[in-house]
Structure formats: structure tokens, C-alpha cells
Design a protein that fits this description.
It is a single chain. This protein has about 160 residues and is an alpha+beta fold. Helix content is about 35%, strand content about 25%. It contains five helices and five strands. The protein has helices spanning about 1-10, 25-40, 45-70, 105, 125-130; strands at about 15-25, 75-85, 90-95, 135-140, 145-150. The protein has a five-stranded antiparallel β-sheet with strand order 1-2-3-5-4, covered by helices on one side. A hairpin with a 3-residue loop joins strand 4 (about 135-140) and strand 5 (about 145-150). Helix 2 runs antiparallel to helix 3 (about 45-70) and helix 3 packs antiparallel against helix 5. The longest helix is centred in the middle third of the chain and has 22 residues, at about 45-70. The chain is globular. The structure holds adenosine-5'-triphosphate and magnesium ion.
Length: about 160
């Protein structure tokens, strides 16, 4: 009986969603942020909650551009999906079909970076982890990377 109650409690109804697909160009980093922010605004987030979501989206999209497709001459595509549920949770999925990550655990460690230009600090995943409630990374070398994260928006009193 307890188990059934738990399952019922976890069921969420999706209230709105958006899908977008755009070339992995740095100009589209702000575009992706604005798309997700516009959707999340429908849940009436605080300024801080909105800033957290925008930052996490920027980090994930920048990773697709810089690392996923970094050395490719032809521009790859980034798929973005965002939705929210009736429990005030925003879910965001950011996907590239770039080079993928060999060791996800290692890649997610603070200060770990494969960038040797000195421009990157290896803090992108740590920022995503601390700003969002849940994060999951799926990646296959040669096939691409998908980052899924969720954030619960506090309900206004
Ligand atoms: N979409 C991706 N495709 C391929 N590799 C990735 C992708 N995202 C992350 N990585 C790998 O994971 C490492 C860690 O990513 P993270 O965002 O934490 O740091 P960074 O991008 O190197 O630096 P920063 O985000 O601080 O500028 C990257 O250096 C890269 O090797
Ligand atoms: Mg990064």
C-alpha cells in the first residue's frame, strides 16, 4: 500500500513544453537562455531561481559548442527541450551529437577540464550541480552528450 501511495505521489502532470533546435554557435547561447527563461517565468520564479536556471543552461550550451563540436569545421546542432510540471518543477534537456565524454564522473569533478587554452576553469558541471536540484549526464564517445536537469520553483505565498 505504501509503495502504491509513493508511486501516485510521484506522478507529475506536464503543463507546458518547448522544443528548439539551433546551430552550435556562441550567439545561440543567449538565445537558449532566453527560451528557457521565458518558459520558466510562467511559474513565477524568484530572480535568483531564474538566474540559476539561465546560468545552468548557458554552461550546458557552452559545453556543446566548445567541447562537443569544438574542433569540427561544420557547425553541429544543439537540441533543447524544456518543460514544467504541476509540482512547479522545470525540466531542461540539452543535447549535442558531438564528440561525447569518455569519463563522465571525471568530467564532472570541480576544476577538471580538457581545455588547454587556459580559457576554461573546469567549473561548468559544478555550477550546474549547485544551481539545479537534479542533474544527469548521458554521453557516448563519438555520439554526443545529453544533459538533463531539473529545478523546483518555490510557490509564491
Ligand atoms: N557537451 C560536451 N561534449 C564533450 N565534452 C564535454 C561536454 N561537456 C563537458 N565536456 C567535458 O567535460 C569537461 C568539464 O566540463 P565543465 O563544463 O565542468 O568545465 P569546462 O567546460 O572545461 O570549463 P568551464 O565550464 O569552467 O569553462 C570539459 O572540459 C570537457 O572535456
Ligand atoms: Mg563548461
Amino acid at each position: 500500500m505504501k509503495k502504491i501511495t509513493k508511486i501516485i505521489k510521484q506522478k507529475r502532470v506536464m503543463l507546458n513544453q518547448i522544443k528548439a533546435s539551433f546551430p552550435a554557435k556562441s550567439v545561440n547561447e543567449s538565445l537558449s537562455r532566453m527560451i528557457v527563461a521565458s518558459l520558466a517565468c510562467q511559474l513565477d520564479p524568484t530572480i535568483d531561481e531564474l538566474a540559476d536556471i539561465k546560468t545552468a543552461v548557458s554552461e550546458a550550451v557552452t559545453n556543446c559548442i566548445v567541447h562537443g563540436y569544438g574542433n569540427n569545421k561544420s557547425v553541429g546542432m544543439i537540441n533543447l527541450y524544456a518543460c514544467y510540471y504541476d509540482n512547479n518543477t522545470v525540466k531542461i534537456i540539452i543535447k549535442d551529437k558531438g564528440k561525447g565524454i569518455e569519463d563522465i564522473k571525471k568530467a564532472m569533478l570541480p576544476l577538471y577540464t580538457t581545455d588547454d587554452s587556459g580559457e576554461r576553469s573546469g567549473m561548468g558541471f559544478s555550477i550546474m550541480q549547485s544551481f539545479m536540484d537534479k542533474i544527469r549526464v548521458i554521453s557516448n564517445p563519438g555520439k554526443g552528450t545529453t544533459v538533463i536537469f531539473e529545478k523546483k520553483i518555490t510557490k509564491p505565498e
